[in-house]
Amino acid sequence: MDSQFLERLTRLQRSGASFVTATVVSRRAPVSSHLGDRAIVHGDGRMEGFVGGSCSRDIVRRQALEVLISGTPRLVLIRPDASEEALIHAAGAESVVVPMTCASEGAVDIYLEPHVCAPLLLVAGLTPVAEAVAQLGALLERQVVRVVTGQERQDLSEEAVDVVTLGDLPAFLNRVQEDRRARMAAVVASQGHYDEPVLEPLLRAGVGFVGLLSSRKRAVTVRELLELQGLSPSQTARIRNPVGLNLGARTPAEVAVSILAEIIAAERGQSLQPAASQTDAEQLHSSVTAPAPIVHIPLRPGFALSPVDGEEIEMATAVHFAELDGQTYYFTCANCKRRFLKDPQHFLTGQTA
Predict the structure, then answer these.
(1) Is the model's pTM score more than 0.85?
(2) Measuring CA to CA, which of 14, 30, 190, 309 is 20 to 30 A from 347?
């Protein structure tokens, strides 16, 4: 295989692009292509390379886009004596005979091979359910990306190859191609630690499947806070909660199975019954990951006081914060931030800027 062509394939695969390679495997003169000629057909119909003249090129483009959707290789036999009826009956087959639309009496066989990138699965949180979702996602041959805070990163298992810290998530999403973001699935399972800071960039970026592991009651407050931060109700309505099919799951592994099952069902265009409640699962892993109590100490350089509960917060590592009138306020949790944004003056009365 031509080294430049191989290098181009490698670059496309690394970028996460989906495409089809077209290779001339047989020919009968007179045709302009030669054995071994190759081309790349992109998802938008663009072609790189050469597998024939204008007539063959249009046929290959149409057939390649079908192959990209089906994910199945296809041998395209372009013949001057083929009928349109044969093409219709052969749709979806491993090989199709297509009539040559030009005056040429030649024939050419072109092998089309789809290269579909592994689906992206973004898992936010360092909870037992998040760990189980990541492990099961890898078994299902998905490209798993973990989202954690900078402090949590050192606690991730060695198997977690692709890791994005919370602050880098918007930039990461911007690097992902738009069509791949639309096919991406994200599971937010931080146990309320940083659900909203993850959900906001996911929804703004148009990620296809966004699931939140939480109670229905908490999901209401999450949506309310996100809308206070500028998201529309139509955007927050895309949050799937409860996430996971109703399998009666109780353990983290079982909850992970139910979540991946819903993702697969969504990808296949099926509408199945979501989980009735995640209460048992929440109780299971909240007992393992319950946050340690905050110890109040005198205010130090680099720290700020939450205007809601008066707790001291390190500004450099803060997850929950908001800008108001040119000043940044820091909070211990998303609910404190929500309460503040609903009525800032209630908490700022008597404070000095």
Answers:
(1) no
(2) 190
